[in-house]
Amino acid sequence: MSVYRLNYRAYTGKVTPLWMRILVVARYGFNEAWSSRITIGLFILSLLPPIVFLVIIYVANNPMARSIIGSYDPEKMKIGASFFLIALQTQSWLAMVLASWVAPRLMGFDLADNALPILLSHPISRFGYVLGKFIALFGSLSLVTWVPILILFVDQSYSSPVPWAAANFQLAMGMMAGALIWIAFLSVLCLAVSSWVRWRVLATGAIFAAVFVPSGVGAIVSAVLRTKWGFLLNVPYMMSLLWQRLLGAPEFLGRWGSLPTPAILIMLAAACLVSVGMLNKRVRAREVVRG
């Protein structure tokens, strides 16, 4: 039959809901992130510290294991806020290493192959596309942050010879909140940097630079002006303070280096807004080529 004799009509079948379209992007992003052997290797590496922490919890709560060890310092092996703070910090920085590899894979391929115009020509918005990538990265980082940390909390609650979970429930909530804040900030930042740097290796380096270079600038500002407000540019320092307060652990620099919690949250929110602006500028349905 000739083409001009065909009668075309609009599709009248069932339409996929908007939230399902976002999950499609997230599913393919998740598959793309975990299709690399390096991603699997980094994930396995990130599970080694929780195994060590599980052994410490077992020894701290088992008299027979402590007697086998012989020399036992109860203060060093005390399971409390300081112990879980170390676990949270360890997993959070391992999550940054994983994010620096995964995020460029999520954004870089679409940008390098000029696939955004094709993807955004489908019934999905720019916000839905970015949200799908965010969900994929956020879910990947969750597997190495709050999930293993809460497993440690559950194991300690089960292994403790005295009722422990109810008295330390704040630790679980603090660890959960601290991990979620960190991986949300990290996901937005890494996607924004990856959207502007197409080369994967350079994007990984740019992510580390975006976190640690301002930290050096902030240290210089604090030293020259003799003020603590330069630490607001130091993301590792701000997150350490925030984690300590959420878990109720003692702060290490005292009053001189202490920053108000609202100032830390405002600074993190401002960094996220800048990252969102970068994504809004970069993720477009068309590409302007200037020659």
The share of residues in extended strands comes to under 5%
Task: Write the H/E string, N to C.
Answer: HHHHHHHHHHH
Shape: globular
Number of domains: 1
Taking all residues together, what is the mean pLDDT?
Answer: 86
- What distance separates the N and C termini? 45 Å
Radius of gyration: 23 Å
Tell me how many strands there are: 0
Helix content: over 70%
> What ranges have pLDDT less than 50 throughout 5 or more consecutive residues?
none
Key features?
mainly alpha, single chain, globular
Question: If you had to describe this structure to a student in words, what would you say it looks like?
Answer:
Helices cover 70% and strands 0% of the residues. It is mostly helical and 291 residues long. It has one domain (13-282). Helix 7 (146-159) runs antiparallel to helix 8 (169-196). The radius of gyration is 23 Å and the shape is globular. The two termini are 45 Å apart. The model has no long low-confidence stretch (mean pLDDT 86).
Lay out the secondary structure:
Blueprint: H1 18-33, H2 37-61, H3 63-69, H4 81-112, H5 116-120, H6 126-142, H7 146-159, H8 169-196, H9 200-225, H10 235-247, H11 261-282
Short description:
The chain is mainly alpha-helical and 291 residues long. It has helices at residues 18-33, 37-61, 63-69, 81-112, 116-120, 126-142, 146-159, 169-196, 200-225, 235-247, 261-282.
